[in-house]
Amino acid sequence: MKEVLVSVKSIQRDTDGQDQVVELVSPGTYGERNGVYYIRYDESSVTGLEGVKTTIKVYPNSIVLVRTGAVTMRHEYILGQERDIIYQTPFGDLAMSVTTHELEVDAQEDRCSVHLGYDISLEGEAQFYNQLDIEVREE
């Protein structure tokens, strides 16, 4: 694993069409093992997830996002598929469903970019469109 800078831009669009944008640049690590690229970084107060460690596993046709710490979750994003997940927080668990509409990956030895567009449904009710753009580059 090598030291890198991880840039994450997250856009969440609510039911009224209003966007909330959060951007984070954090030191992290990046490397490949058995054909899978791993991006690891610590969340910050900017994302509201201070004290949470994020690992993104980049496969050729899917992304797995794992968070551990104050919250625990594992999301799998596969283009055109819906996945059910449990988001564990100190305040209780949330049942969520994620449907992936956009997935573009460019993972190479020295850099990585991921574009992800998906809908989240919380407890079978509210639905939000989310977009996640991740860029990894050497420091």
Note down, in words, how this protein is organized.
- The protein is mostly beta strands and 139 residues long.
- 0% of the residues lie in helices and 73% in strands.
- It has no helices and ten strands.
- It has strands at 2-13, 19-33, 36-42, 53-58, 62-68, 73-78, 82-89, 92-107, 111-122, 127-138.
- A ten-stranded antiparallel sheet has the order 6-5-4-3-2-1-10-9-8-7, with no helix packed on it.
- The two termini are 13 Å apart.
- The relative contact order is 0.21.
Topology, element by element:
Layout: E1 2-13, E2 19-33, E3 36-42, E4 53-58, E5 62-68, E6 73-78, E7 82-89, E8 92-107, E9 111-122, E10 127-138
Antiparallel strand pairs: 1-2, 1-10, 2-3, 3-4, 4-5, 5-6, 7-8, 8-9, 9-10
Classify the secondary structure makeup into a structural class.
mainly beta
What count of helical segments does DSSP give? Answer: 0
Distance between the termini: 13 Å
Helical fraction equals: under 10%
**Residue windows where pLDDT falls under 50 for at least 5 positions:** none
Strand order of the largest sheet: 6-5-4-3-2-1-10-9-8-7
Please describe the biggest sheet, giving its number of strands, its sense, and whether it closes into a barrel: 10 strands, antiparallel
Q: Report the β-strand fraction as a percent range.
A: over 45%
Q: Mean of residue pLDDT?
A: 89
